[in-house]
Amino acid sequence: DATRVVVVGASLDDRDEAVAGLTGLLLVAGPIALAAAAVLGYLLAAAALRPVEAMRARAGEVSGAPAGARLPLPEARDELRRLGETLNAMLDRVDGALERERAFVADASHELRTPVAILKAEIDLALAGERSPEELRVALASAREETERLARLADDLLVLARMDGGSCV
């Protein structure tokens, strides 16, 4: 019973040559492919963030713009558009609050002008010419009533300011 062994050999020159060619190709093409991928990635990121930059730039202008200025919305129905819609809704609420504040200040100013005008007239009348003690007493009583009215208005304004600020008296 004889066992036969067959040994097969092949030259590694072809494999070594292929590896050397591939190594050279990777050393040249690898950095070029990496640079191309980096540039393409930068361009894609810049294109994706262009709507964000437009919203940021407009948001910087809104603080100095007249009421009603809003952020631009991108065409795509995505998270960025929803963010813009949310911010525009917030700007609507801020505009409404500012309008209510202006109306309140105008009303408060009107309410304060009346007792101040009456108080001034009473004092001017008391100081004008010779007045009897009874006329001075009447003028001082009226001035006191208007002063009390002013104090009540100031207290009411303070209560409103505290309530608006989130804390109650």
Report on the structure:
There is one protein chain. It is rod-shaped, with a radius of gyration of 42 Å. Helix 2 (about 80-125) runs antiparallel to helix 3 (about 135-165). It is about 80% helix and about 0% strand. With about 170 residues, the protein is mainly α.
Structure keywords:
169 residues; rod-shaped; mainly alpha
Secondary-structure topology with pairs:
Blueprint: H1 13-62, H2 79-127, H3 133-164
Helix pairs in contact: 2-3
Gist of the model:
The termini are far apart. The protein contains three helices and no strands.
Rg on CA atoms, Å: 42 Å
Kindly state the percentage of residues in helix. over 70%
- Low-pLDDT stretches: none
- Could you state the order of secondary-structure elements as H and E? HHH
